[in-house]
């Protein structure tokens, strides 16, 4: 009896280890498959790159030192071929290549995006193209999007702060269920950051203000009030943000659209 009991206990103790080993093996196999797909995708991008496209990136303020020179149309085509794949997105991001990271934002599954991933990727942003694409294609559909708008808006790093307002801008378009109260809070964050004179921050703040004011009539009124306060501010950058937003938010075209 004692031998049987000991044997049974040993088997029970071994079972969790076997399961853990099997799970680790499966995880490693999946990671290997993702890496292989990422390398295949990278090869595809290289074949569809051109020096002319790469050289042209400078005209749009995009650094090309880690870029191949692939058009947005080709990146979108590749993402469509690859389909949604969270593990592949991580592997593509880890290549550090501009176009691979752009495609990563297009194939990742928003539901699987974690807070840690958002912070990690955000720290890698070094240009407006990657920042805005990740925010518009992925982060604004992730479960933690609103929390990151608030958190990142208070950060000092240029592209982290830009990400906050690019994300808010994206949410005005893609979050159809959000209550107006969330955007009212967004306007408070906009007003707080409107004096940031850095080009890539002030433009994102301005676009977030304009996008919020085009969501519905109530938010238009709130955004116009915010823009008027900024236009009357003593800070020159805040004045620009407010006056530029007012021109669009009070235009006949926006008024007609909101009334319709």
Automatic annotation (TrEMBL):
Residues 1-14 have a biased composition (Low complexity). Residues 1-30 are annotated as: Disordered. It holds the Pfam family DNA_alkylation. CDD domains: AlkD_like. SUPFAM superfamilies: ARM repeat (SSF48371). This is DNA alkylation repair protein.
């Amino acid at each position: 009896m004692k031998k049987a009991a000991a044997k049974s206990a040993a088997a029970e103790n071994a079972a969790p280890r076997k399961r853990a080993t099997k799970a680790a093996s499966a995880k490693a196999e999946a990671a290997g498959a993702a890496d292989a797909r990422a390398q295949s995708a990278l090869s595809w991008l290289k074949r569809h790159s051109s020096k002319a496209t790469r050289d042209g990136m400078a005209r749009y303020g995009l650094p090309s030192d880690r870029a191949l020179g692939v058009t947005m149309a080709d990146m979108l085509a590749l993402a469509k071929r690859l389909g949604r794949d969270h593990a592949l997105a991580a592997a593509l991001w880890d290549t550090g290549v501009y176009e691979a990271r752009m495609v990563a934002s297009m194939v990742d599954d928003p539901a699987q995006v974690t807070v840690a991933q958002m912070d990690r990727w955000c720290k890698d942003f070094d240009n407006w193209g990657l920042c805005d694409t990740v925010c518009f294609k992925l982060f604004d559909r992730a479960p933690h999007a609103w929390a990151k708008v608030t958190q990142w808006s208070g950060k000092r790093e240029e592209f982290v702060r830009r990400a906050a307002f690019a994300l808010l801008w994206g949410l005005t378009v893609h979050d159809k269920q959000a209550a107006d109260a969330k955007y009212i809070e967004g306007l408070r964050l906009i007003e707080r950051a409107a004096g940031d004179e850095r080009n890539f921050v002030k433009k994102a703040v301005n676009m977030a203000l304009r996008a919020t004011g085009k969501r519905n009539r109530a938010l238009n009124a709130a955004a116009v009030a915010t823009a008027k306060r900024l236009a009357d501010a003593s800070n020159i950058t805040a004045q620009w943000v407010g006056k530029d937003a007012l021109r669009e938010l009070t235009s006949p075209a926006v008024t007609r659209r909101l009334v319709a």
